[in-house]
Structures are given as structure tokens and as C-alpha cells.
Design a protein that fits this description.
Structural class: alpha/beta
CATH topology: Rossmann fold
Mean pLDDT: 94
Number of strands: 7
CATH class: Alpha Beta
Order of helices and strands: HHEEHEEHEHHEE
Strand content: 15-25%
CATH superfamily: Vaccinia Virus protein VP39
Number of domains: 1
Shape: globular
Strand order of the largest sheet: 3-2-1-4-5-7-6
Number of helices: 6
């Protein structure tokens, strides 16, 4: 594991404190309060979402990065609800088909190595009628800002290990989901090229 990734994991919460207070935390709380039954959250990071799940949720979280997973384990121990932690990539979820009522991705689909494969896995593990809840920073609809996202994407990938110019909502549709709710906004207090935000829900389309 690289020194850069260890540093990122160690500083993630402090680096994101401003954006959380400026509205991102409110998005998490509102969206995740809908989740019920058996829930899988991919790329749970340091466990920012744990406080916002309702009582009674049967929660499984995945995290492939060892440094993030250690911090996630500590945060899990701070909560009274049982949480299953699985160290797995979003592209290779070790679960059978149709296992979960809800799937959650918050600021993860920007950073997975293979977005199409990760979304395919989320679709596969959801039960019929299950729902994907997402908060993702995305490619801007404003052409000028989108060009800046393309120019700065290499720097962003180096610093925070994700792409700032992915058309993630379109990718969700291509993966076989129907978007049922979608709100566009911005991550306040974040650099302009990573501010465009998509918050929503999607359901698998029946073949």
C-alpha cells in the first residue's frame, strides 16, 4: 500500500469537514433514512454514513483499502448496531444474486477502477424491486466547467484517487437502472471542478 494512500485515509475526515458541514452531511442523512431491510454500502471509507441508517437495518459495508478499512472498523465499534465489514472491491462483490433490499454508493463511483463492472455488481446483488441510493460528484453539464474537469482530472486522480469528470448518472442508466429520483446540486466548499453533485435513487430495470 502506497504512502500516498495511507496519508489520504488518515486525512480524509479532516479534509472533507468543510463540505460535510456545508450540506453533504444533510444529503447523506436525508437519503439514507430511506434505506431499510438488508443494505449494502460499497466503498464505505471511514464510515461517514453509519450514523444515518435507521434502527433495524441489516447493514453490510465493503471497503477494499486497508487503511480506510482500519478506520472504518474503529467507527463501527463506536456504534451500537451490528455492521458486517467485508474487504472487497465494488467490482467483485462476494455475495449471491438478489441479496439486498438497498444498495448505497456515496462518492464511490467516481473512484472505482471499472465503473461499468461496479454498477453491474450492484444491480446483480439487489433483490427484484431493490433500490440504489447514490450521492456522486459528476461531470458538469456546463461545457466550460466540464472542459476544466477534463484538464484537471489527472491532478484530481493523483491527489484524491478519483475522476472528477465521469458522467455517472448516464452510466447508471446504461447499467440497467431506471432513475426514479434525481437532484443536481453542488458540494459547497469543494474546489469548483469537483462541485457538481448528483443525488438520487434508481431501480433495476426488469429485462
Amino acid at each position: 500500500m502506497s504512502l500516498r494512500r495511507r496519508f489520504f485515509a488518515a486525512t480524509y475526515d479532516s479534509m472533507s469537514k468543510g463540505t460535510e458541514k456545508a450540506g453533504l452531511q444533510a444529503h447523506r442523512e436525508t437519503l439514507l433514512s430511506r434505506a431499510s431491510g438488508r443494505v449494502i454500502e460499497i466503498g464505505a471509507g471511514t464510515g461517514r454514513n453509519l450514523a444515518f441508517y435507521r434502527d433495524g437495518v441489516e447493514l453490510t459495508v465493503t471497503e477494499p483499502d486497508p487503511s480506510m478499512a482500519r478506520r472504518l472498523e474503529r467507527r463501527i465499534r463506536e456504534h451500537s448496531r451490528p455492521v458486517e465489514l467485508v474487504r472487497a472491491r465494488a467490482e467483485e462483490l462476494p455475495f449471491g444474486d438478489g441479496q439486498f433490499d438497498f444498495a448505497v454508493s456515496t462518492l464511490v463511483l467516481c473512484g472505482v477502477a471499472d465503473q461499468e463492472q461496479a454498477l453491474g455488481e450492484l444491480r446483480r446483488v439487489l433483490k427484484p424491486g431493490g433500490e440504489l441510493l447514490f450521492i456522486e460528484h459528476v461531470r458538469s453539464a456546463e461545457p466550460g466547467l466540464a472542459r476544466w474537469q477534463d484538464r484537471l482530472n489527472g491532478v484530481n486522480r493523483f491527489v484524491v484517487h478519483c475522476d472528477c469528470n465521469r458522467s455517472t448518472v448516464d452510466a447508471i442508466r446504461r447499467a440497467g437502472f431506471a432513475i426514479t429520483e434525481l437532484a443536481h446540486g453542488e458540494m459547497k466548499k469543494a474546489p469548483p471542478f469537483v462541485r457538481p453533485l448528483a443525488v438520487g435513487a434508481a431501480v433495476p430495470v426488469t429485462p
